[in-house]
Amino acid sequence: MEPCSFLTLDSFITDPLTHDFMRKALLMSSLVAAVCGFLSSYLTLKGWALMGDAVSHSVMPGVVVAYALGLPFSLGAFIFGVGSVALIGFIKQKSRVKEDTVIGLVFTGFFALGIVLVSKIKSNIDLHSILFGSPLGISLSDVKQTIFISLLVVILLSIFRKDLMLYCFDPRHAKTVGINVFFLHYLLLTCLSLAAVVGLQSVGIILVVAMLITPGATAYLLTDKFDNMTVISVLSAIISSLIGIYVSFWFDLETGGSIVLAQTFIFLFAFLFAPRYGIFKLKKLFAGYK
Amino acid sequence: MESINYQNFRIDAENICVDYNGKVALYDANLRLKPGQICGLVGMNGAGKTTFFNALTGFVNISKGKIRINGESVRSAQKDQTIAYVPQNEGIDSQFPINVWDVVMMGRYGSMNIFRCPRESDVQAVKDAIERVDLTDHLSTPIGNLSGGQRKRTFLARAIAQRASILLLDEPFSGVDIRTEKLISELFIQFKNEGKTILLSTHDMIHVREFCDLVLLINKTVVAYGETSEVFTPENITTTFGGISPDFLFGPES
Lengths: 290, 254
Hints:
The structure holds two protein chains of two kinds. By secondary structure, chain A is mainly α. In chain A, 79% of the residues lie in helices and 0% in strands. In chain A, helix 2 (20-46) crosses helix 11 (208-222), helix 7 packs antiparallel against helix 10 (181-202) and helix 11 (208-222) crosses helix 12 (226-251). Chain B is 35% helix and 22% strand. Chain B has ten helices and nine strands. Chain B has helices spanning 49-57, 74-79, 100-105, 120-132, 148-162, 178-193, 205-211, 228-231, 234-240, 246-250; strands spanning 11-20, 23-33, 38-42, 64-69, 83-86, 166-170, 197-201, 214-218, 222-227. In chain B, the strands form two sheets. In chain B, strands 5-6-7-3-8-9 form a six-stranded mixed sheet, with helices on both faces. In chain B, strands 2-1-4 form a three-stranded antiparallel sheet, covered by helices on one side. In chain B, helix 4 (120-132) packs across helix 5 and helix 5 runs parallel beside helix 6 (178-193). The interface between A and B is medium-sized, with 26 and 34 residues.
């Protein structure tokens, strides 16, 4: 054993891996990050950031009810996630209130309902872990569920990758050539609800929206090709998760917050130094030195 | 009893009404177009031009009336790739991370398998279409780096690649350069000779006189419809534009 108390890079990376809960947390969070990152490029381009915020908050009462009834919490989350969107659409159509206002009032209503339910239903639901995530304390059944949902979302998004891109880009053309736009709309919403469910485990309900927005926004600044955007989005999400978990392990910080903060820093880096769209335009800077 | 042979008409819209949540956008509108006809759709902003297009493509549902495309429903026209829509430049997110080739390939999506894998024939159709609009040098240019005219030509190429027999064009001449304008006019003549049916909305009265066999003047409903020479009169235009004199629209010289 080395007497030195300072960490070497090697032990910085390998030490946490000796703990079973850390290996599990790193794997699960990377998987969740990949799913959210994949979806993130669609949400960014569709302009659904606020919708992501709404759905991820609205799943709260669904999770609580499902726990109380002993059902898989993904089911409850899914019903409330899609339900909130239906309700937003209904209120918008039947009243003169503007859409962003409707979104704001519906999801806060659902979220409040969730908090009230948690306080009323006597069970072992840990409010803190729902709100802020608990990737370090993930149970075996949660692992199975996360893997199942993640695979489902990735498969769905992969199959309809191009159709969803067209739907985000030009829904009118999609409709004109006979593509089922209604189906794609609800497919994207379904994937959003499911991603919110798996995301809340690693970063919690309050911050899951960051997982759904930030990687896509980062990638959007770095490329002009949709496929590259998806890859960059997924990679930046995974890297952020790994950084966040390591940092929280060594410096004893809140894990969910650390993951999201890592994503924010990566975004800021892209914002400043992206080759074409960053404010310092790194490409031109390099060209100057040639 | 003898019935009209609807097969003769590419587009046959009969008394169609469209409303958005109870607000009427278009009512009792009629339109009949045959193969090889070019029709101008003229009206103010909010007169229902885009709504008319949306009804024909099936993007909005009509609340009354009937639309037949080649004698069949809009739904089967969609499946058969009969209608192509060329959007206004403003209707498209020009910052979307996509290049010319991929946009034009979208014209083929409707006839591909579920994974949208391009076949040899799709690749060829896209190549040909891009060549016809003279964008071969810009295959991998992101649409954000194109000029307004080049972007317009990209979407025109998408419609060509789709091999649709009906083209709906929303303001095809707005915000384009002279070169693009000339190319589009040449293409219109080719389309006409190929027997395609074209419906285009425009603000520019000179273009209507130049290209359109027929003109449809609308203001929530049809104000006048028929041969351009007969229908495109100062009186009708004044009615369509809510009392504004055609002098104001054309300039006093014309």
